[in-house]
Amino acid sequence: MQRPIFVGALLTVGWLVLSPSVGSAEVYRFVDDQNRVHYVSSVEQVPQRFRSQVEEPAKLPPINRVPSSTFTPSSIPAVPSSRVEIFVADWCPYCKKLEAFLKRERVSYKRWDIEDNGRGKRRYLELGASGLPLIKINGNVIRGYNEAALRAELGL
């Protein structure tokens, strides 16, 4: 005989959830002496001897609604190429990550391949570099790929 009770409870819950007038109301639950679960919409509908089972609904904080944004990557101007220089090599995996990051963030840059360009190699060595990638932004040097440092330096 448990099946009719379960089906009844399931139908009651379904009705409460799907009913537009009650779906947003508070719902209280109690179990009677025959272990039947009851759902009611107010505490007054719970018999006095079962009210100790009923908890007050939690007070929820107000919901803050934030309007949707019209942000698009193209709405941010690219950082001028004269501000950003990168020193890389084709075989360097972190150099590839760096370039992917700069492209994704729409940052213009001057690329120096230290193995294919003698002038790039000289500039790289003048900066006292010993690893790749090396990034120069507004005269400040970042050694290695560090997205947080790049974002901070670029103001992203």
Outline the structure in words.
With 156 residues, this protein is of the alpha+beta class. It has 2 domains: 2-53, no CATH class; 78-154, Glutaredoxin. The chain is 29% helix and 16% strand. The chain has 4 helices and 6 strands. The strands form 2 sheets. It has a 4-stranded mixed beta sheet with strand order 4-3-5-6, sandwiched between helices. The protein has a two-stranded antiparallel ribbon with strand order 1-2. The N and C termini lie far apart (65 Å). The mean pLDDT is 79.
Task: Please identify the structural class as seen in this structure.
Answer: alpha+beta
At CATH level 3, the topology of the largest domain is: Glutaredoxin
Helical proportion? 25-40%
CATH architecture assignment name of the largest domain: 3-Layer(aba) Sandwich
What is the typical, i.e. mean, pLDDT? Answer: 79
- CATH homologous superfamily of the largest domain, by name? Glutaredoxin
Low-confidence stretches: none
Termini separation: 65 Å
Specify Rg, calculated over alpha carbons.
Answer: 32 Å
What is the CATH C-level name of the largest domain?
Alpha Beta
- Tertiary shape: rod-shaped
How much of the sequence lies in strands comes to 15-25%
Summed up, the helix count is: 4
Total count of strands: 6
Cross-sheet strand order for the largest sheet: 4-3-5-6
Element pattern in H and E: HEEEHEHEEH
Give the biggest beta sheet. Answer: 4 strands, mixed
Taken together, the total number of domains comes to 2
Annotation keywords:
alpha+beta; Glutaredoxin; 16% strand; 4 helices; 2 domains; 156 residues; two-stranded antiparallel sheet; four-stranded mixed sheet; single chain
